[in-house]
Amino acid sequence: MKTTFKTALLALLLICCMTLLCGVPAFADAPDTALPVRVVTLNGTTGFGMAGLIAAHNAGETALNYSFTVDTDASNVTAALVSGDCDIAALPTNAASALYNKTGGKVQVLALNTRGVLYLVTDGSVEVGSIADLDGQTVYAPAQNPSFIFAALCSKSGIELNIDTSYAQPAELNTAVAAGEVSLAVLPEPMVTVARSQNPDLVTALDLTAEWDKVFKPGSLVQGCVVVRTKFVEEHPAEVAAFLEDYGRSVALLTEDIPAAAKAIEEAGIFAKAAVAEKAIPKCNVCFVTGEEMQAELGAFLEIMFEKAPQSIGGALPGDDFYCILK
Description:
By secondary structure, this protein is of the alpha/beta class. It has helices at 2-22, 45-48, 51-58, 74-83, 93-103, 145-156, 170-178, 191-198, 208-215, 230-235, 237-256, 258-267, 274-280, 291-308, and strands at 36-42, 65-71, 88-92, 107-115, 118-122, 138-140, 162-164, 184-188, 203-207, 222-229, 286-289.
């Protein structure tokens, strides 16, 4: 009896020591499979990584009780987070930072899901071999995130030009580009692939991620992320950890089986045509980055945007509590 008690005591002490050293809870709760976990994602590239998880849930292959909504407007997604109508959402990184600032820290970022997806497209009427060739030109860019990023890139590169944001949404600009109404435009994938399929004369002249890496810290262009309501992660850390595992597997599908991922993207309503998504996926720079690496990369991006366009991230750099690093 004494030996048994002594063994149990030593085991308990060992668990406690490991907790202190590794930051892992000694008695982690199992996820509540009945708890509703409401997930909202934008259509387009920001939502690509969620498609596999949606497909797995629809097939009854996930343990958590998910509900998924796909939206076309980031403002609807942020409104759902503020109202508490969703728990986890995929958003542009600048929108996540702005929401953190607006709500006093009521959201946190869980993972990066998209690096740079912007490209300069030309109809051939203007020869573009480098970003310097854009000096003095008018370039159309969707409003918000793409235009802020492009403006920061041009400023750092010493380029003076007119950035026209009269086509507010990427889809609107894509239509104008495909119709030949615009000569120079910044478009995200998969819109580049859509435009070129409709107008074979279009040329992808510049990969803006590559141009960004020439003048800023390489790897610091990160455009998409997944966020969680701070209250939700405080109350349900086990479920959030389980979501991250599910989401990581979902993102991996985009490189492991591109045709299957493209099919899931179409079926989820994240993008209309699987064939186009399949061509675009390799150029979408979808990623899954968490923890300290996430904080380092996103922090570098937000510092650049704060210097160049502070309004784009909510007027201030988020605090360290913006980054949800699960232990």
